[in-house]
Specification:
Blueprint (H helix, E strand, L loop, with lengths): L2 E6 L2 H10 L4 E3 L2 E3 L3 E5 L5 E3 L2 H4 L20 E3 L4 H11 L4 E7 L4 H14 L5 E3 L7 H9 L2 E2 L4 H29 L9 H16 L5 E9 L2 E6 L10 H11 L3 E14 L7 H12 L3 H13 L16 H4 L2 H7 L6 H9 L34 H17 L4 E12 L2 E12 L33 E3 L2 E8 L8 H9 L8 H10 L8 H10 L3 E4 L2 E4 L1 H9 L2 H4 L1 H15 L5 H21 L9 E5 L6 E7 L2 E5 L8 E11 L6 E5 L6 E3 L5 E3 H9 L7 H6 L9 H14 L2
Parallel strand pairs: 1-4, 1-7, 7-8
Antiparallel strand pairs: 2-3, 3-4, 5-6, 8-9, 10-11, 10-16, 11-14, 12-13, 12-15, 13-14, 17-18, 19-20, 20-21, 21-22, 22-23, 23-24, 24-25
Helix pairs in contact: 3-4, 4-6, 6-20, 6-21, 7-18, 9-10, 9-14, 9-15, 10-14, 10-17, 16-20
């Protein structure tokens, strides 16, 4: 009997699909049933070939071999996942396999994962595409009932392949050029470099910022305060003497309420989450990195199946999803969400005007709960937090607007104008979903804040109890956090002067995609281009220098704007893949030429006094994402050692987070208050139940430094080896 082969992207997803399809017999890298055989990749099993595969001369990192411009790009099986590739390829060659269902992630990169495997294995039989937005049993069954021909997604594959080849041509060539030219481990890329430039430019603005003093004048009457305004509405006065004289003149006078204006206002609920907005809120509320939030979302999507597909850039749903909303509401009728979800269900028909917009739904709709009821006790703390954010937003967007009455007062005192404002809530509306907390940022200016106002009428005369001049200072722009950097990556058009490019950036969604932005930020950390101070992101000297050394064209967000527009055109069949890649070859050659002709220099300014135990060179002090490290500057050597690691373990004296210092048996906790304790002693306490419930797991979890992108790391490693010969 002929069978259908199903190719998933990960083992966990493959096993779930196999369970739904009744595949109960296990094999080497697959599950089999009467009608289906389900197998899986491990992410990518096939990748673009390294330079030396094309030409042995390209194995040597040398300016003389640049640029590297293969006429036809080749793919190779990734060495570490060869076993699983062979398992998949053997299944594709089985005589009883009649057709294939592509069940990798429903997006550009997921399409590339499957198609490269199929090409490498020589698949020639019919293929169909499973395109779903959640991993529930219901979604999988319905997806298999509505499979589409794989050829419908050919253009999406061409777009993904073009993106990959362009990044190879530009990224590897420029990275090799920078590394060889300046004898340092430097890398650049069309998304990485402009993102780093945002952080570096902001730091320059802060460094050159000169604060200016200004003054405001406020008066206090019976029951409210009011702020002075000039004829244009400005509150700031630059002259101290003028501000003080104004305050002195008005004190003790009587003012007249020349206007009392009450305005009924509504604030609609925020749109449902896409990945970037969720990462922003998770960083603001819980200090999760973009990478952490994506990882947690993947778990809630693939393992717990309580949330829909995470890698989406849409904040709306389409009409065809509306019919599932009652079932989704029933699924979240648990714990503290139950009363509000039940109230929404009672007030049917559902108010979906803030959630449904067919025109704004791309490959996937917004992140919302699935029809699967959660077992909250099975969720970890971080999973519970992210689930909470999504459920509250889902409930909020189905609620009516927040309604309030705003009162604005205009007070005239001796010919001078003062204003005050207050707000009375009429209907909580969607804010009922956020009864215990709010993610809204304080956007009030420092001169006039909302206050509770007494009952006042136009024409009332009010005494001025006191008047005072208040001093203030202009503030520099704030450093980026991961939350604000994600916003800047999504909307970088402010950094682009060209109007056409700015428009393209707005249309294409900015720097990178929701699925790749977290990885880009992680790469900046692993390359030691940025470091974290509290929540703030600060460029290192290396980061500042690499932005200056990279070709100017590569530093601009405008480049990725052009790329994304053209990649989108390829996905829609409006442009040929070959034309785009051909231009990228010319572009890579031009960038390499710019680096070769550069007369700039690179300097290590973080050299320690400690020598490398392997090669004897002085080690560099670097601040990794999770602590301080010593790294050898010699790329032939590659030695690195952790000095301190930031942990979640709390000091028993002052309860602040402790650092983990040393290596092996000598590892020790250290706190700023002076407390010290050996790691071995801390573990014993944990085993005896005297340490916190999950302290040990928390501080040991993910302490190892993240490495850079594997392909680039492999290339740098090979370069080191050939330098040592």
């Amino acid at each position: 009997m002929a069978k259908t082969l199903v190719l998933a992207e990960k083992p966990s997803v493959g096993r779930e699909i196999g369970r739904v399809l009744g595949c109960r017999r296990g094999g080497d890298g697959f599950l089999e049933g009467d009608r289906y055989v389900v197998t899986w990749a491990l992410g990518h099993l096939v990748e673009l070939a390294a330079p030396e595969v094309y030409d042995k001369a390209w194995e040597k990192w040398d300016m003389l071999t640049l640029p590297m411009l293969p006429e036809h790009m080749k793919t190779v099986v990734i060495k570490e996942t060869t076993r699983q590739y062979k398992a998949v390829a053997n299944l594709m060659k089985r005589g009883d396999i009649a057709d294939l269902v592509i069940a990798t992630d429903s997006g550009r990169e997921g399409e590339l994962v499957a198609r490269w495997i199929m090409e490498k294995a020589g698949w020639k039989k019919p293929a169909k595409r499973l395109w779903i937005s959640s991993q529930t049993d219901k979604a999988i069954r319905e997806g298999f009932q509505n499979l589409r021909p794989a050829r419908d997604y050919d253009n999406l594959f061409y777009s993904a392949r073009a993106r990959s080849e362009a990044d190879w041509l530009v990224g590897l060539n420029v990275t090799r050029a920078l590394t060889c030219r300046f004898n340092a481990q430097l890398s650049a890329g069309r998304v990485q470099t402009p993102t780093l430039a945002l952080i570096v430019d902001r730091e320059e603005e802060i460094r050159h910022f000169i604060p200016k003093e200004y003054y405001t004048v406020s008066v206090k009457s019976n029951g409210f305060n009011a702020t002075w305004r000039d004829r244009s509405g400005q509150a700031r006065i630059s002259d101290k003497a003028r501000a003080e004289a104004l305050a002195e003149r008005l004190s003790g006078k009587t003012g007249v309420l020349t206007e009392v204006r009450k305005t009924y206002k509504q604030t609609p609920p925020p749109a449902a989450y896409d990945l970037t907005e969720l990462q922003r809120d998770a960083n603001r509320k819980y200090a999760y990195s973009a990478k952490e939030t994506l990882s947690i979302m993947q778990s809630l999507y693939e393992i717990h199946k309580v949330l829909t597909y995470p890698r989406t850039d849409s904040r709306y749903i389409s009409d065809d999803v509306v019919g599932t909303l009652p079932e989704r509401l029933r699924s979240v009728m648990v714990d503290e969400y139950k009363p509000l979800a039940a109230e929404i269900m009672r007030n049917r028909p559902l108010q979906t005007r803030f959630l449904v917009n067919n025109a704004k739904v791309t490959d996937h709709h917004a992140i919302i709960p699935t029809e699967e009821a959660p077992d909250l006790f099975r969720l970890s703390g971080p999973e519970r937090n992210i689930y909470d954010l999504v459920v509250r937003r889902f409930l909020a967007v189905l609620l009516p607007p927040f309604e309030y009455e705003e009162t604005r007062l205009t007070l005239t005192v001796d010919g001078e104008t003062f204003t005050a404002k207050g707000k009375i809530v009429r209907n909580q509306g969607w804010k009922a979903a956020y009864s215990r907390f709010s993610l809204e940022e304080d956007e009030e200016d420092g001169e006039e804040r909302e206050q509770s106002l007494p009952q006042l009428r136009q024409g009332d005369r009010v005494p001025i109890v006191s008047a005072r001049a208040n001093v203030g200072h202009t503030a520099p722009p704030k450093r980026y956090t991961e939350a604000t950097l994600l916003t800047a990556m999504e909307h970088p058009q402010a950094q682009v002067k060209d109007r056409e490019q700015s428009k393209i950036l707005e249309e294409t969604g900015g720097l990178g995609t929701p699925a790749t932005r977290a990885d880009i930020i992680e790469k900046l950390f692993s390359a030691f281009y940025i470091e974290r101070r509290g929540k703030e992101l600060v460029p290192t000297s290396k980061g500042v220098q690499v932005v200056g050394l990279a070709p100017a064209d590569l530093r601009s967000a405008g480049l990725t704007a052009k790329w994304e527009k053209r990649l989108g055109d390829i996905a829609q069949g409006r442009e040929r893949e070959q034309d785009f890649v051909g231009e990228m070859r010319k572009y890579a050659a031009r960038l390499v030429g710019e680096v070769k002709q550069s007369d700039a220099t690179y300097k290590h300014d973080n050299v320690s006094r400690e020598k490398c135990p392997d090669c004897g060179k002085f080690l560099l002090n670097v601040q990794g994402k999770r602590g301080k490290m010593l790294v050898c500057p010699d790329r032939e050597c590659g030695y690195r050692r952790s000095v301190t690691q930031t942990t979640n373990a709390r000091c028993p004296n002052c309860h602040k987070k402790m650092e983990l210092r040393g290596e092996g048996e000598n590892q020790m906790f250290a706190c700023v208050c002076g407390y010290r304790e050996k790691l071995s002693d801390f573990k014993k306490k944990r085993e005896n139940g005297s340490a916190g419930k999950r302290d040990v797991q928390k501080f040991l979890q993910n302490q190892q430094e993240e490495k850079g992108p594997s392909a680039m790391a492999e290339q740098l490693k090979k370069w080191m080896e050939q330098q040592g010969k």
